[in-house]
Predict the structure.
Amino acid sequence: MHGSRIPIWFFIGLLLAAYGGMILGYGCYEAISGNFAPGVQLTELHTPIWWGAVLLLLGVVYVVKFRPGKKS
C-alpha cells in the first residue's frame, strides 16, 4: 500500500502546467489581437508569453520527474 502513494509534487506540476498553459494562451491571444490593457507599461515585452512558457515548462518537468509508478 505504501508504494502506491502519489507525490504532492506531481499535483503541483499539474497545477503549474495548467496555469502556465492558460497564461501562455492568453499571452498569445493578446499578442495576436493587439488587445493590450490600457495604461500597462512595457507591454512590448509580452510578459504573459514568457511567464506562461516558464510555468508550463516547470510544470512538465515536475510531472515527468514525479510521475506515479516511476521507479526511482
Remarks:
- The first helix runs from residue 8 to 33.
